[in-house]
Amino acid sequence: MSFFEDDEEQQLEEVTEARRRTRQRGPSGPSPLVRVLLILVAVVVLVLITSLGIKSCLNRKQESEFREYFEEVSTVVQESDAIGKELSDMLQKPDESVRQALEGKLSEFQTRQDDILARTKEIEPPDDFKQENEWLIATMQVRSRGLKGLQPALLNAIEATDNQAGAAQVAHEMLILLTSDVIYDEFYYQPCQEVLKEKEITEIKVPQSKFLADPALASQQTAVTILERLKGGTEQVSGLHGVALISVKALPSGMTLSQDEQNSLKASDSLTFEVEIENQGEATENDVLVSLSLTAPGRPSPQKVDGYVDTIAPGEFKTIELSGLAAEAGDQPALLRVEAGPVPGENNTQNNIGEFSIVFS
């Protein structure tokens, strides 16, 4: 055997040995541990992508359900509020045409509200609003109840000779209607707003509702005036009627409150204010309602105080002192709302109301 043959045989043996070792090690690449880690990472990424996609789809579905629900609510609320507005307009301007159609209109209002109540009960709320939806139904039930009681109360009061007794019953039924607004705001509107806020949904709005735009319609004195007009017994049905709020002073300091800037007053358990009004009409007005409403930080609902100016002649100025409101010291301003009237037949009510921002120290 030659030298070259020995060399070739040695090279062949080396190649064979290299192939054997390669088969034992397996193909080159990542170690088994690395491969397992890569697989785990891929699985985690896939799970995250899938979960995010599912969550996004669920959020879109939820928002769609919320939007459809509040659209249904908005429909029944607007229809109910429209009844309240028609009723308020009718009672605030009870002319001869109203007297002739009164019974029929009251029956119509009740029928419409009963239908709204039935449709409200058919609304299917999302799970997040099931409890609040019960208060929506309660709102409509209270309105139906108020209208049902108002018709006989008003018709009987018109036939009665004692306006005060009849007015008390009318005011009671009107107060029930006013209560429906409180129920809706406190137990439906605000809680629904909180749910949307917690879920960070800003594009969907909860519809607001107001059956009686003027709370004074639920007072007995207003009911007396309405009955006098419905009976045709008030001689002051023609000419210009109207009172105006002139000034509001805080007592005992005598400081005149300003609507244009923030006012500073000492906190007290019994605030007293002197309200001055003017009769800017052409007829003497009797029993003019003057109302104070104080909305203070930290209090869930405003405090209210009412008083009456017995009589005020055309062009005359009268003052009335009202007390009983309470306020605590704080950095946040409170809102004092003062309203004079309106009186029967008054068309311009823009100068009847004053709002004052007050910081109590």
Rg, Å, rounded: 37 Å
Strand order of the largest sheet: 3-9-8-5-6
Q: Tell me about the largest β-sheet.
A: 5 strands, mixed
Q: Could you tell me how far the N terminus lies from the C terminus, measured between alpha carbons in angstroms? A: 120 Å
Q: Structural class of the secondary structure composition?
A: alpha+beta
Helical run tally: 6
Helical content class: 40-55%
| Overall form | elongated
Which stretches of 5+ consecutive residues score pLDDT under 50?
A: 233-238
Number of extended strands: 9
Helix-strand pattern, N to C?
HHHHHHEEEEEEEEE
SSE topology sketch:
Elements: H1 3-25, H2 32-92, H3 96-121, H4 130-159, H5 163-198, H6 220-231, E1 243-251, E2 255-256, E3 263-265, E4 268-279, E5 285-295, E6 303-312, E7 317-327, E8 334-340, E9 353-360
Parallel strand pairs: 3-9
Antiparallel strand pairs: 1-2, 1-4, 4-7, 5-6, 5-8, 8-9
Q: How would you describe what is shown here?
A:
The chain has 361 residues and is of the alpha+beta class. The chain is built from six helices and nine strands; from the N terminus they run ααααααβββββββββ. It has helices at residues 3-25, 32-92, 96-121, 130-159, 163-198, 220-231, and strands at 243-251, 255-256, 263-265, 268-279, 285-295, 303-312, 317-327, 334-340, 353-360. The longest helix has 61 residues, at 32-92. The model is unreliable at 233-238 (pLDDT under 50).
